What we know:
single chain; 22% strand
Amino acid sequence: MDCLFCKIIAGEIPSTKVYEDDNVYGFLDIEPQAPVHIILVPKQHVASANELTEEHTEVIGKIFLAAAKIAKEQGFAEAGYRIVNNCGEDGGQTVSHLHFHLLAGRNLQWPPG
Ligand code: AMP
Ligand code: ZN
């Protein structure tokens, strides 16, 4: 399948790994929008939040647990962080493999643009 993040998970495209377990892969965003900008993805291809089914319940929970674990390990849990999923064109999704942005290291503004 011609999917950028599937290729990153498979190691066919290089990435800077920050987290990995059986079902989740985490790597540095190539165009960071904050001092910490990590992408967390299910290893199994899912195009977007629109394609989620009951079978994905566990992996989505694991992605959030991974984010909280990284936050504690990297020392920004107390200062705070943001977990973002962009879905579809209006959501600003540019890569069609479900992913969550983990952003931290600066005071993030709200609402987003
Ligand atoms: P989104 O716009 O929500 O679909 O997010 C896609 C993200 O993937 C963007 O923040 C990009 O900077 C990031 N990205 C694109 N290509 C790569 C890559 N080769 N390695 C790491 N991050 C990437
Ligand atoms: Zn994929």
